[in-house]
Amino acid sequence: MKRAYLMELTVLKSYVRQLVGLGFFVAICICIGMKNIVSVPGILTMMLFMMSSMSAAAYDEQNNWGLFRLTMPVSRRDVVLARYGVILTLGVVGMLLGFVATALLMAVAGAVDLPGGLSGMLAFSPENVQAMVFASMFCMVVGATIASIVTPIYFRLGQTKATQFIPMIVVIVFICPFVVLGGSGMLDAGAVHLEGIMRVLADTLALIETPQGVAVFAVAALVFTLAVLGVSSAISLKLYERREL
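Request: output the structure for the sequence above.
Response:
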């Protein structure tokens, strides 16, 4: 597996540099609009989780790399596990880069009076750090979930065919349930105790506004991320073993 993991990193190395630059650009635009920097690590985390899966699948079909790779001393199991290892690695790298960048910006803002009110926007505060951790872990869950859905499809169909089905799958998984529930009346006040749901949501939001709540959420998000990627990798193993290249 180590050999396959290093091959994946080598193939994606140049693309990751471009993706990190694009991630920082998007994060800067969002931060200017929101007038804070708490979203930087989360944006990089989510982008690297999602795009590492998609770009690796694209490279598989470039110059028949996916077929040529299997002529080397690596098994299909090694290829699948290495792919998920790289997805997790790059997602964590994105989060760390985001935290390092925001820490440097906060340090500069604390040492130098920046123009345009930037010092106030970039100033360190426990609340900003707490919000940053929560946003990063939430974005990690979103990115890992999307990667866990699309990666098995790529392994089964290949990148070219998968792009025809992924939009439909996204609609089925993320949009259709709400349309069905809304159309069936299950979301009406008579069918669902909305007051109870809103009370639970309010209590949850109050909890995650505390350091202890954020710590609990971070642990839960990490466990969920590892679990969803683990389940997805098991599915990918079955699908890739049956695929004829």
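The chain is about 85% helix and 0% strand.
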